[in-house]
Design brief:
The chain has a seven-stranded mixed β-sheet, with helices on both faces. The chain folds into two domains: 2-128, Four Helix Bundle (Hemerythrin (Met), subunit A), CATH 1.20.120; 137-362, Rossmann fold. Helix 3 (76-87) packs antiparallel against helix 4. The chain has 368 residues and is α/β, with parallel strands linked by helices. The radius of gyration is 20 Å and the shape is globular. The protein contains twelve helices and 18 strands. It has helices at 40-48, 55-72, 76-87, 94-107, 112-150, 179-186, 204-213, 226-231, 257-266, 287-290, 299-302, 352-358; strands spanning 2-3, 6-7, 11-13, 20-23, 34-37, 158-162, 191-196, 218-221, 237-240, 244-246, 251-254, 271-274, 280-281, 303-307, 313-317, 330-333, 340-343, 346-348. Substrate binds at residues 53-55, 90, 203, 253-254.
Length: 368
């Protein structure tokens, strides 16, 4: 997508042909900085410390992390170390394991001399594939927005609520939940986006940054406003992303998604999840019982990053001294509250049978 009118992906190779460059998302939306990753350990830190975030992007950077590792040492022992270090960075987003399993399975039977070249090729393929998946999700989700627009008075605006950031900054390009919105905007459909701030890390600011860069009308709101807007008919549909979806259709996404789904259900507002197939975990059935929920540092909750009155970027502590903070990063929305999945292959119901039918060829992926 674009920053200051220039097309930009979230991960790409440096001019030297081997270093991996990313946008430092801890500095956005206030400052655009590029970080050059030159080692597997640095790639792991980028994922763990959320220099990059979003399940699809995490997977792509992890694949490049192994490529960097193979440049350092292509032995069997180091390949296993790279896998072990990277898989331990983020426990919830399944794309991380999906990408690492895919690269590991390809490399383990190759010679050490060939591993570096193959790893870089496969990482680039995973990144390009993600772009294609996300654009297809956009095209399929566009049809839903078109249908809603056709049922409203001519010239009316379609109001869409989203939670967290599932735009191009969470993927390699286009995004998942935001991709249909970009497509609708480009098609000339009048859309307006209610952007949840998404505490504690305020990823909604990233969504606002994206939408603003593309001229899409939007309003940043506090996380607890969504239900009120739905009660008053100000939301036509909700679209969110997912970090892991179970075989029966339960959705694990950024904390607060479950509450939005409950409000949408109570107010009969369609609640869609943009679902790229690598985010399906076929080995998990009951999301509430089985998906590990990442708990992050309490400082993410007690401190806010922003611009002070002097124009300086700084962290501000908002919690009383000595207060213990519980920082649960994700929650699970049961499938019964999901209207449907917007996938790269089309739209389907949030049921085990519908997922199995749409992705029958993927139900038994190769595991390293």
């Amino acid at each position: 997508m674009k920053i200051n009118g220039k097309h930009q992906r979230t991960v790409w190779l440096g001019q030297d042909g081997w270093s991996v460059e990313i946008l430092d998302q801890t500095k956005l939306p206030f400052d655009v900085q590029v970080i050059s990753l030159t080692s597997m350990e640095q790639a792991a830190k980028a994922i763990k410390d959320m220099w990059v975030r979003g399940a699809p992007l995490i997977g792509a950077v992890a694949a490049y992390g192994i490529a960097l590792g193979m440049k350092e040492d292509a032995s069997d022992e180091h390949l296993q170390k790279c896998y072990d270090v990277l898989i331990d960075t983020r426990p919830t987003a399944i794309n991380l394991k999906w990408a690492l399993d895919r690269v590991f399975a390809e490399l383990k039977h190759k010679s050490a001399e060939d591993r570096q070249t193959i790893a870089y090729q496969l990482a680039a393929h995973i990144a390009d594939e993600d772009v294609q998946l996300c654009e297809s999700i956009g095209e399929n989700g566009l049809e839903i927005i078109k249908q809603i627009a056709s049922n409203k008075p001519e010239g009316s605006t379609v109001n869409i609520l989203t939670h967290c950031n599932a735009g191009w900054l969470a993927t390699v390009d286009w995004g998942t939940a935001i991709s249909p919105i970009y497509k609708a905007h480009e098609a000339g459909i009048k859309v307006h986006v209610w952007v949840d701030e998404t505490r504690p890390r305020n990823q909604g600011l990233l969504t606002a940054f994206e939408l603003g860069s593309h001229g899409v009308p939007h309003t940043l709101i506090a996380d607890n406003v969504g239900g009120h807007l739905m009660q008053h008919g100000e939301v036509d549909l909700c679209i969110v992303g997912t970090d892991r979806t179970t075989a029966k259709g339960d959705v694990c996404n950024k904390i607060g998604t479950y509450l939005k789904a409950l409000a949408a259900h109570d107010n009969k507002v369609p609640f869609y999840v943009a679902l790229p197939s690598p985010t399906i975990d076929w080995t998990v059935y009951d999301g509430v019982k089985e998906i590990p929920i990442e708990q992050r540092s309490g400082e993410e909750q007690s401190h806010v990053y922003g611009i002070d009155p002097s124009g300086k970027l700084s962290w501000v502590n908002t919690a009383p001294k000595g207060t213990e903070c519980g920082n649960y990063a994700f929650d699970v929305t049961p499938a019964k509250y999901v209207t449907g999945f917007i996938t790269e292959r089309g739209v389907c119901e949030a049921t085990e049978s519908a997922l199995s039918a749409m992705f029958a060829d993927l139900k038994a992926p190769e595991i390293a």
